[in-house]
Every structure is written in C-alpha cells, then in structure tokens.
Amino acid sequence: MAQNMKNTIVGNAARGLCLALVFLACGCVAKKPPAPSVPPPPPQAAATAVASPACEPTRNSLYDQGVCAYDSGEVKRAMGLWRIASNTDPDAAVRQKALFAMAGVKLAQANTEAEMAAAMELFDVWNKGTPPGGSGEDPRFLLSALKNLKPAATLKEQKATLERECAKKLAEREEHVRKSIQQQVRALETIHQQIQEKKKGLINN
C-alpha cells in the first residue's frame, strides 16, 4: 500500500515537471519586456557662417580687427579701430587702408550734405597719401555707397517733384490765408452795418 502511494506521488511530480517544461518551451513563462530602443541623437548641423579672414589669430592689427568687427556687424567699433589705425599704425599701407575703409563707410552712411562733405574730406586725405597703384585697399567698402548712388536725371526729377510739392503747399496756404482774411472783413462789415443801423435808430427816436 505504501509502495503504491509512493509511486503515485512520484508519478504526479514527474507529470508536473513535464508540464512546466512544456510551458517554458512554448513561451508561457513570463519574460521581461525588451528595453525600448533609444534613437541616436540627430547629427549636429554644420555651421554655415563663414568667419571673416580678418578674424584669424595671425591678423591682429587694428585695421584687421576693424574689418573683423565690420564683418560682424559692429560698424561703430570698426570705425573706432580704423581711426586709431589711421593715426598710429607704423605701416603707411595700413594707415591708408584704414582711411579708405572709414571714408567708404562714411560715404555709404551719409544722409546730409555735411556728412557727405566729411566723407569726401577723408577721401581727400586718403588720396593725398596714396602711392601709385594704391595700398591694397578693400573696394567692397564702397559697394554700399555705389548702390545708393542715383543718376543725375533721377536727382533732377526728385528735385523738380519737391519743388512742385512745395509750390502746391504754398498755394494752398495762401488760399487759406486769403479766405480767412475775407471772412474777417465780412465780419467787420457786418458789425459796422449793425452799428450804423443802431445809430439811425437813435437819431430817429
């Protein structure tokens, strides 16, 4: 009896072990989910801005520093550096290049006759010290000024248009003053007439 019971227990354990192995083979045993894949970081965008050659460490003169500042949009700082370079740099060619750069920028920025005259004075100073063939001046400092230049015919037409507009406004102003004077005269005549009628009434009474 005891032997039969032992065989039954062993048989049941064996069947349980077989079932467990079957479940494991079929994938019924819980497994850990795979770790989510991390997308690779996007490649860094390549820099599109091209540094000015004047900003290179080997070019450290005040003139080059001014060109670097100008190319970076710091026009006021560039003008200050060029002003110092035009007066203190031991190289005459550098002084001439600084003068030319200042004159070109001033000419491009000129909005009045006085500013235009100041730019032309700088050009005169530069011209007097320029050797034959120049000193390696950068012509691009004149590009903005050249783009703003207008033909003489255009300037004449603009002047004629301004004169017509001024004449029209002056005529309108004169007409306004004339009408105002006429109204005042009529008002005075009305007052005078009223006074005369009152006088007649007093005399008749």
Using brief descriptors, characterize the structure shown.
205 residues; disordered N terminus; single chain; 69% helix
Walkthrough of the structure:
- It is a single chain.
- The chain is built from seven helices and no strands.
- With 205 residues, the protein is mostly helical.
Proportion of residues in β-strands: under 5%
Helix content: 55-70%
CA-atom Rg in angstroms: 48 Å
Total count of helical runs of at least 4 residues:
7
The rounded distance between the terminal residues' Cα atoms is 166 Å
Class from secondary-structure proportions: mainly alpha
Q: Using DSSP, what is the number of strands?
A: 0
Major sheet: none
Helix/strand order, N-terminal first? HHHHHHH
Round the mean pLDDT to the nearest integer and report it.
Answer: 75
General form: rod-shaped
Return residue spans where pLDDT drops below 50 for at least 5 consecutive residues: 1-33, 44-49
